[in-house]
Amino acid sequence: MAQPLSPGWVDKESCAFCGHDEGAFVRVRTIPYPICRDCLPRLARFILDSPRNLVARFWAIRKDGDPLGVGFPRSISAKDVQTHASLARAYGEMHLPEDALAEAATAILNGAGLEPVEDALVVIFEKKLRYEDGLWVEELRAALFPV
Ligand SMILES: [Zn+2]
To answer: How many domains does the chain have?
Structure first.
């Protein structure tokens, strides 16, 4: 059963992942902490490029196979960002988590506009696609910033 996030994360005015407290943050409706602009591409590349078994520690995907980004166009034009964010949403609703995550990460990596990036982040942090665990964010942070 899920543990609530520790109170320290709620309304914290620093990035959930790197801890920086200056610059631009993205707030996602479904999670109670901000993510900075620098950590967005880091998160996207983690999802697209990491070995499956590592990504599968955080999202409900198959552990075997190529990294999620293999076979996906890495670079998309700015006008296509919303399309990919919407595709991520649709795949998420169809419960195709591999496709949903790859599309969302692609949108984030290329997302100049805030709105589609937020849509894509909603998919990435959607409860049904990830493992519910009180330490989820802390463990993801450790994976994004390996020592
Ligand atoms: Zn950050």
So the answer is: 1
Amino acid (1-letter code) at residue 50: S
Per-residue pLDDT at 2: 39
Domain assignment present for residue 2? The answer is no
pTM of the model: 0.84
Domain limits for position 116: 7-144
Ligand 1 centroid–CA 36 distance in Å is 4
- Alpha-helical regions (H) of the chain: 39-49, 52-55, 81-93, 97-110, 114-124, 136-144
Distance 92 CA to ligand 1 centre (A): 25
Question: What percent of the chain has a predicted confidence (pLDDT) above 70?
Answer: 84
- Compute, in angstroms, the gap from residue 94 CA to the centroid of ligand 1: 30
